Amino acid sequence: MRKLILMETTETGKPWPSNKIEEAQTQLYAYLSDFKPERYSYSKHAIMGPVGKLLGIIAASKFGDNVESYVGYIINIHDQQSIIGISNLKDAVTTILAIRETVSERAFLKILSSIDYAVYYLKMKEISERKAEKKSEDGNNE
After folding, report:
1. Looking at residue 142, what is its pLDDT?
2. CB 51 within 8 A of CB 22
3. Is residue 103 a part of any domain in this protein?
4. DSSP collapsed to 3 states, 37-84
5. Which domain holds residue 67?
6. Distances (CA, A) of 106 to 5, 76, 88, 138, 140
7. Based on the number of CB atoms within 10 Å of its own CB, is 47 exposed (0-12), middle (13-18) or buried (19 or more)?
8. What is the pLDDT at residue 111?
9. Tell me: the pLDDT tens digits for 13-55?
10. How many domains does the chain have?
11. Rg (Cα) of the chain, in Å, rounded?
12. What is the C-alpha separation between 12 and 69, in angstroms, rounded?
């Protein structure tokens, strides 16, 4: 006889925590404004810096609900921190862990993925705007 397969059941009518998701995205994007990579590259891995690693370890629940452990782990990776950057990082981790408490595991993984790509989009948008600005300045100087 086969073993039973247990599935998690949740309410489907629960509202998506959009405000909290946007808050986490903004905080992580603000954190990345302090991030200076060792080498400039346009890969997603390079652009996201330590944030990509953070979202991965939160998804794996490496440190449970301990905000300071997640922040310390990322500080260890990204050694050029400012006080504001650490504050943004801590706020983002706190917000993400608060989201995890209110949704199912499956929904949480979807939310982490959406945060990941939203922060990537914001960062790419910033890079594109800077690039266009520089290009227009170079065009004006000639």
Report:
1. 57
2. no
3. yes
4. CCCCCCCHHHHHCHHHHHHHHHHCCCCCCCHHHHHHHHHHHCCCCCHH
5. 18-129
6. 16, 29, 26, 48, 51
7. buried
8. 95
9. 677 888 999 999 999 999 988 777 677 777 888 888 889 999 9
10. 1
11. 18
12. 32
CA distances to 1, 43, 100, 137 from 134, rounded to whole Å, are 68, 20, 41, 5
Both tokens of 94, joined, read: 């706190």
What token pair was written down for 16? 């998506």
Report which of 96, 129, 77 is spatially closest to residue 28, judged by C-alpha positions. Answer: 96
Residue 31 lies in a domain: yes
Q: What gap in Å lies between CA 47 and CA 49, rounded to an integer?
A: 6
Q: Which amino acid, residue 24?
A: A
pLDDT digits (tens, 9 = 90+) for 65-95: 999 999 999 888 877 667 888 899 999 999 9
DSSP symbols for 2-35: PPPPP-----TTPPP-HHHHHHHHHHHHHHHTT-
> In this structure, what token pair is assigned to residue 4?
């039973």
Confidence label for 116 from pLDDT (cuts 50, 70 and 90): very high
Q: Which amino acid is at 82?
A: S
Instruction: Say if 121 falls within a structural domain.
Output: yes
